[in-house]
Write a structure and sequence with these properties.
With 246 residues, this protein is α+β, with helices and mostly antiparallel strands. It has five helices and eleven strands; from the N terminus they run ββαβββαββββββααα.
């Protein structure tokens, strides 16, 4: 049996606030048990995996078994979960079961790349708690989502962007620097305008281009057809001040 689980996509990953400070919050990336189930269904088939829960000294363990058709036997991996906090509705045991399932999924390699996530601090609105020492989210209902994620050849996270529920980017890692847009050069009509002005003033094209290169050292034009709109406006004003050639 040669299993290779796909790397998690942005839609597979959830964002959870771990710690809140004066200037923002530290967040963690995690997967839900539903993600593991979907990946298992996709890769091995819904009839070729199963799970089993059992208690060991008060700790709930989940065992995920996958059928190895080569050996014609079930192969199992397991891990225990952590009981979630009391929510008033008695769901903490359910949270422990879900956590155990996800941890067993990690044992199989599902989502293990999340362990390579960088320290992730987002700038967001917070407020001081009544104790005067700690902080909480200004909006307790604020949610954050992974917009994009990328991996290097070793499966380690090297690109990550997170936005809030309004679509505002709050964290970016490894994004490419925005490329400078291609310059928009003047059209033939404006080139003709410059040529007529050069003829009127007697200024040669080479001298004009040298002058523009001095004024625009980052984008010096090497031909009239490579003059930008900004340079055109500048040079036309300069030409208009020149007298007619004698």
């Amino acid at each position: 049996m040669d299993l290779k689980f796909p790397l998690l996509t942005a839609d597979d990953i959830e964002v959870k606030v771990k710690k809140v400070s004066e200037k923002g919050a530290t967040v963690l990336l995690y997967k839900t048990a539903r993600v593991d189930m979907n990946i298992l269904d996709q890769i091995v088939g819904p009839l070729n995996w199963k799970c089993f829960y059992h208690d060991v000294k008060g700790n709930l363990y989940c065992e995920i078994s996958i059928y190895d058709s080569d050996k014609q036997e079930w192969v199992s991996k397991e891990d225990c979960g952590i009981e979630s906090r009391e929510d008033g509705e008695g769901n903490q045991r359910k949270g422990e079961a879900s956590d155990a399932f996800k941890r067993a999924g990690f044992k199989w390699g599902i989502g293990r790349e999340l362990y390579t996530a960088p320290f992730t601090f987002i700038h967001c609105a917070t407020k001081q708690k009544s104790d005067g020492r700690s902080y909480e989210m200004a909006n307790p209902f604020a949610r954050f989502n992974v917009k994009s994620i990328g991996y290097d050849d070793s499966g380690r996270i090297n690109v990550l962007s997170i936005c809030d529920d309004k679509g505002k980017m709050v964290y970016e890692l490894g994004q490419k620097e925005p490329q400078e847009p291609e310059p928009e050069y003047i059209d033939e009509i404006k080139q003709t305008v410059i040529l007529k002005e050069l003829h009127r003033t007697g200024w040669d094209a080479k001298g004009m281009l040298t002058y523009l290169a001095e004024k625009f050292p980052k984008t010096p034009p090497d031909a009239i057809g490579h003059i930008t709109e900004k340079q055109f406006t500048f040079i036309v004003k300069a030409l208009e001040k020149k007298p007619d050639k004698t």
